[in-house]
Amino acid sequence: MRALEVVETGPLALVQDLGRPGFAHLGVPPSGALDVPALQLANRLVGNDEAAAGVECLFGGLRLRATTSCTIAVTGPAVAVEVDGRPVGSHAPVWLAAGQVLAIGAPDSGLRCYLAVSGGITVDAELGSRSRDVLSEIGPAPLKAGDVLPLGTPSIPGGADVVPPTVAPAELVVPIDPGPRAHWFENPASGLAKTWTVTAESNRVGLRLDGHALTRAAEYAERELPSEGLLTGAVQVPPNGLPVVFLADHPTTGGYPVAAVVRQASLPALAQARPGTLLRFHSSTRVWNR
Amino acid sequence: MRWRAYGEHAALLDCASLAESMAAHATVTSARPPGIAELVPGARSLLVVEIPGSAALAAVRELLADADLEHPPEGRSREITLDVTYDGEDLELVARDAGVSVEDVVRLHTGAVYTVAFTGFAPGFGYLTGLPEPLRQPRLSAPRTRVPPGSVGIAGEFTGVYPRVSPGGWRLIGHTRTVLFDPRADPPALLAPGDRVRFRSAG
User: Fold this and answer.
1) Chain B partners of A234 at a C-beta cutoff of 8 Å?
2) Which of B130, B124, B140 is nearest to B89 (CA)?
3) Contact B121/A251, CB-based, under 8 Å?
4) What is the pLDDT along chain A (290 residues), one digit of tens a residue?
5) Using CA atoms, how far apart are residues A191 and A209, in angstroms rounded to an integer?
6) In which domain of life is the source organism classified (chain B) (predicted)?
7) How many CB pairs under 8 A join A and B?
């Protein structure tokens, strides 16, 4: 069997593909790679379909042994990649012989690197996806030493040979649109436009922010919100006024008001935002309170 | 009923009542215009997410503008019966607050026909509406850190079953052995919005 054997995982290594959208009405989050373009690129570099499952590796420390020859690529922010201790670089296809050990270091900026392997990782799918959902605990368990990851049949690589890695900036400007409960807040656009700091409590469920708390409009100060549907990118504001930006493993319904929604194109940048990253929301629309 | 903007590809229908949101959900489910990526009913709302470029949001708006929500389509009306052992830790509390006997709580809970209004909190956790008035009681003041899977609870206007171990503040009246959610099964969730549910006392 073509496979990769897990030697060491680092802080958190998860099998991810493009997720399982379409089941929100059953309470199932979309999940999937947080930095989607990075996983797609890694797959193209090794000749896979863009949707094949790879490994989302949080802050490096992943070591894998190939039980058979295969081609791998690591993408996301720039990161040291070694084969049997020899540096090979990220963002390029690398050929591994059977028995060789691949090691991914900690990225220079950002948080999450993506490993694709020729043939893709073919652990059993759940609801049509091999993604691990950390909130619902659906999909393959987080990787641990000794795990054997089965691989599919490889095809011929057709992508570019080397591509420049992205750099995760220390300060982000995130475009937003009004959310369904924007009118629950005093001046939501200007409140959100202040500077926020990404906290260490952030994970695949959401980015938790610290900063100058949003205030509720007097009319809604004590109001309870009955549970309603949530989207990836929703900026939900609990009673303490500190926003949570929901990422792929968000709950499908929630009971706190959503003040704004992040533009989908910004989600990969949010996936790479380290704790301490400064963030400002920018709204292009003037229509907020309705 | 009022539409509210929700980002680039979605809109939330604000509803006046649970009945209205369920009627709106039944209407859209029945017509199912193409291009809907997610359709998520809530307690007073319906979230519609479209596939970018599909114009499904406009189609849903038009559909609901003309719909008779007093008489929504019946839909598939799947009916599910769950066998419950009424031995929950809060059974006596529920009886006391309702001013009835424990036997009456069981009689009331098994006597009603419920509808899955929406799902949330966890995969396969259905919020069932139709709870008899005396059983509409508040959550526990201090939620439990661990509710065993299969626990049958009540909270406010809803009753429901915890599909798996989780924290939770609903008052527990019993448990069922039926599997509520299995990600490898088709369908994965036993209860979907619109389904009808009955509880039967398994002694």
Assistant:
1) 6-7
2) B140
3) yes
4) 899 999 999 999 999 999 999 999 999 999 999 999 999 999 999 999 999 999 999 999 999 999 999 999 999 999 999 999 999 999 999 999 999 999 999 999 999 999 999 999 999 999 999 999 999 999 999 999 999 999 999 987 665 567 888 888 889 999 999 999 999 999 999 999 999 999 999 999 999 999 999 999 999 998 989 999 999 999 999 999 999 999 999 999 999 999 999 999 999 999 999 999 999 999 977 677 55
5) 13
6) Bacteria
7) 124
For the domain made up of B2-65, the CATH class stated in words is alpha beta
Instruction: Give, for B25, the enclosing helix (H) or strand (E).
Output: helix B18-31
Q: Can you tell me the distance from the alpha carbon of A233 to that of B155, in angstroms, rounded to the nearest whole number?
A: 29
Give the closest-approach CA distance of A28 to chain B in angstroms.
5
Strands (E), B36-195: 36-41, 45-50, 79-84, 114-119, 126-129, 144-147, 151-155, 158-161, 166-168, 171-175
Angle between helices B18-31 and B56-65 (to 10 degrees): 120
Q: What is the ipTM of this complex?
A: 0.91
CB A241 within 8 A of CB A211: no
What would the two tokens of residue A114 be? 């993506």
Beta bridge partners of B54: none
Distance, CA of B192 to CA of B189 (rounded, Å):
7
- In CATH terms, is domain B79-201 a member of 2.40.100.10? yes
